[in-house]
Amino acid sequence: MKELSSEIRRLLATRRVEPGGDYCAEFLKEFHERQRRELASLSAGAILWERVVTWWAAERRKLWMTGGAVSLVVILAAVGTTAVISASAKKKDDLAQRPAVTSEHDEIQQDGFQGWVGVEETRAFERMGDSIVQVGWEGASHWTPGFQVGDGMFVSVRSKAEPDQAVRLFVAEQPSEARIVLVDQRSGMVVIEAKPPVRQ
Amino acid sequence: MGESHKRGPDEDASLVKRAQEGDLPAFDELVVKHTPKLYALVYNMTGNREDTNDVLQDIFARAFRNLKNFQGKSAFYTWIYSISVNMTLNFLKKRNREKRVSLDDEELALEQRGELQEMNASSDPVKETERHELNERLSIALQKLSDDHRAVVTMFDILGMPHAEIASILGISSGTVRSRLHYAHRQLQSYLEEFRK
Asked: Is the ipTM of this complex over 0.85?
């Protein structure tokens, strides 16, 4: 049985090299810069959140709802590991057969993302989960995830520059934990993350 | 072997609690305190200074993001080491690079010089040369080990951590730690004996 010689053991022990000099100070400085960059991206999301909330407060008055309280919760947090369903599965022809009627949307221009968040009245949708649907709209190249807020009424987020900036739907194990997440495919940054309302 | 790490769990607990409450300088203190030893851990696993710095930044970024989830069931030290080993192992798996002696190993040799000089204090030049050559071959042999085996050798033989602590960090039994070490030692000894032939 081969064991390590004492000489090799001593040599291994000499490898316990810790950085000297200004390494820790420089390391901490670099860490702070990284934290600032990450906080800056969160701040941009916070601004977006404010816009969505403001928009939603105005739009709610226009919505026709079947009853019960509906709320939109936008969560700007890191997304966990859940199943991802791409929004671009459907063909354009499908949409041409069943065009959607859209209402006005609030435009978003956020850190490279250009698109809309809005409410649609549409006949073109397919249910994917408890509240999550895929929504189609006239002239679009693919469907986008959304969630129902009333009879025939859906909230969705979509990008102008598809397919580079696609909307992805995260479906968690618990339906109540499902999220709609908008991710800039180029930067990987989460632009907006929305939780479907609890259906009454 | 098995040198105990000088750490103050009470001090870490206080700093962790403050950091969890939003005290950023408290987290900075944790970074400064643990970086030197974590540097040694990551460096000996990656063998590369630049990679070490990048991985360490990722480690502390993750620790910062997940600090709110740290419940103090283990020492902070164990928690951050666990993150460090896992992230370094993941990094190594992704790294698509031939394992060979790099310039960084020459830098390692320079840093080891102080220790090696002590070892060579009463030896003659021939033995000193042999020792340096053996050290270089040891670098190659370490890189030949699998990432998991290099991890346990780094923690036990290089950092002097006891079996139980390594087991806690890796989430395996002490018996498995011993088994991996035994295999790794045999591999190292075999590789080095080949060089001597």
From this structure: no
